Amino acid sequence: MNSSASTKERILTAAELLFAQRGFDGASLRQLTAAAGVNLAAVNYHFGSKDKLVEEVFRRRLDTLNAHRLAALSKVAGQPGTTLETVLDAFIRPALALSSDGSGSLFMRVLARAFAEHDDHLRQFLSENYGHVMRQFTAEFARLLPGLSREELYWRIDLVTGALTHAMSGFGMIQRKGDVSEATHREQTIAHLIRFAVAGLSHP
Amino acid sequence: MNSSASTKERILTAAELLFAQRGFDGASLRQLTAAAGVNLAAVNYHFGSKDKLVEEVFRRRLDTLNAHRLAALSKVAGQPGTTLETVLDAFIRPALALSSDGSGSLFMRVLARAFAEHDDHLRQFLSENYGHVMRQFTAEFARLLPGLSREELYWRIDLVTGALTHAMSGFGMIQRKGDVSEATHREQTIAHLIRFAVAGLSHP
DNA sequence: CAGGGAATCAAACGATCGTTTGAGCATACG
DNA sequence: CGTATGCTCAAACGATCGTTTGATTCCCTG
Asked: Which candidate from A20, A116, A192 shows the least CB-CB separation from B112?
């Protein structure tokens, strides 16, 4: 573990890794603090409790990830030339950039876990703090797909979200062919996901 | 809890509910046996260990679910009039029938959990025992989509699987409009999922 | 009716969990 | 220099975990 970073940062990085590997319950504070090279009591000292640590793991990544998403969305939302592709790009690209980062490459896996676990407390935390992001994207999808009923739109967004979350949680796991660069691979993946999402959202 | 069923059956039913609600680690054998109305030691007596119980929870549902899927697939696979829709129907309909059963309505949620948790032991168990099912469906998809490369096909199947797993894990949660019957609602959902999957698999 | 294997039971096992404690250390400020 | 303040540390807390034990009850069969 990086011994130059601060204790809080080392704990967050080790927690992200272990939460991705073993889940929130499965990763103990003793494994976690040992991997981070800090004392066991450091978690409760710096974060208050294990639950607060979990929230902070999400906050560290989602604050900037969703800020990037909204920044990209604001550049295209409501504009005349905007298409489904450009809106989906605003949603997908920041997530895959984070996954390619090396630093945050495991976070999408953690997010997929929280997505599958129907834990009420965690869902409420995510909804309260980041629900407005999905709401803004949904509004733009509704504008670009005027033929769909509200119910039909929610259905399709739910399905697309499930597919993207699942796919992005595995990004970085699959070995890419040696003759393409990381950037090229990412662009191809983004194109894949966008085409799939467009087909799922806009089929007749 | 149903006190007329056998102890093993009562344990499996209570385990399915609690695994869906709290996860495999989160549900303790004490909560589980209390909910089932059986003694704490009954789990280790009848199943050997908690891990074996988890496997049995999957086996009880997946044996019949996948048998139904393969039976439906064998009726259409390779036939001249077969389309993507009929193959997807063979895959989706048995799962939603199980979800509508009342008895097994929570199992798809458990399956979605196992899907998100990248637990090696559980994945190996599922792959060894039920991997041939997805292999047969994949072969039929490949036959119906000759224009796609193997890599492209795997990509799309992975995305569709993620979407369907996510959607079916929430089936039964959403309140349906009061004027449609359970059967009608299920048919509409199947139609929804099939159309989405067809669009995701076959877009140009 | 008697005997015996299957099933259930309360109780306890050692291990591990998240959390708390209080002493010890460092660094900065008067 | 003395002393606050922020942080780290080993150790222990009570609770809960999965599992095991040995006695007891149940039920079928001869």
From this structure: A116
